[in-house]
Amino acid sequence: MNDVPLPWLFGILVVLILLSGFFSSTETALMSINRYRLRHRAREGSIGAKTAEQLLAQPDRLIGVILVCNNFVNSAAAALVTLITLSLGGEAYAAVGVGIFTVVLIIFGEVAPKTFGALYPERLALPAALVYRVLLKLLYPVVWVTNLLANGVLRLVGISREKASTTSLSREELRTVVAEASTVIPHRHQRMLMSILDLERINVEDIMVPRTEIAGIDLSDEWDDILAQLRDSRHTRLPVYDGSIDELVGILHMKKVARLLARGEFDREQLVALTRSREPYYVPEGTSLNTQLVQFQRQRRRVAFVVDEYGDVQGLVTLEDLLEEIVGEFTSDPSSLHKDVHREKDGTFIVNASASVRTLNRKMGWTLPTSGPRTLNGLVIECLETIPEPGATLTLNDYVIDILQTGDNAVKTVRLRPSVPAPAAEPGPVSERRG
Questions:
Q1: Do 209 and 299 belong to one domain?
Q2: Per the domain annotation, does 181 fall within a domain?
Q3: pTM of the model
């Protein structure tokens, strides 16, 4: 090396520092690249992405080849610096030269490259993967021995590759990803994705129409009353029962009787026959909406009756109710039932206490608790631990609630003053769910 001119030595040193920067930056880039974006690029046909994904599937080998190369380059550069300083000024300058080289290597071979790799991982990782695939083939024996020793040390402290965590995301982590993608995903689509993720932890009884509010045909009623109910019904499907909702006969589709009703040719026997052609479909309490959506699709059903452990009907859930949990309310009926929420001039709200808490929160932007009772009446009674008298007042989640009307062992109407005014864009009423 004494015969090599100093300019050549300095040139080789610069190349070694650049190589050190390459190994440092690409190591950071490959370790910090978004695995899901990488998988997407690989499926699109990117050779670099496919290679990077293969290398990252065995990180010990990838890290092994990077560190072997990087340490070899840094050691060679340190030796070259010592040789250069000895040539320039003898042993007195060797310590100074090594000190200066250490600072240069930290800046240009470590900190700056790794920062660049962390900021632009995809730009560096994909082309670097092609280089590392070649290096891994050339240095495989060295890397294999190195990894064998390193993995042996890790096993001594109880760490193994089999116990390593996977890169799959939990539901909560996926919620965080969706929440942070607001610049890419429109806000409405973002809410829909969040709702889909929530389907697993919401049960059918959270959205069902309670049995006391189910609109249906009672075969024990007078025939004229049944005909009047059929003519005035706003529902396309009606449950038919005999005396009690627990004695269901079937589901009546209104399009099957509309023509007969118009011609006055419909009788009780035809009603029973048409009803029995579609038997009721039952689902147990506790069924998640995610499971029920699949069951609706498999059973080719749109209406299900929720039953408890004793087989008693507790309510009714429809495919429409379930889809509204995902996309929000997508139907409006000018002739729908009475309004559940009425806004007063002073900013308070007169609320039907039988309204669903989840529906109120979704429609009005409120934050009433949803972990307990499913109706506002249930929340009030649970909080007070008694059926209150009109004029009673309570505070619930910073909402002041005045009891206006009670009856039939339940709270009927309340006045609610939210801590934060409801959005001006959503002042409309919350309509009762239809059976």
A1: yes
A2: no
A3: 0.59
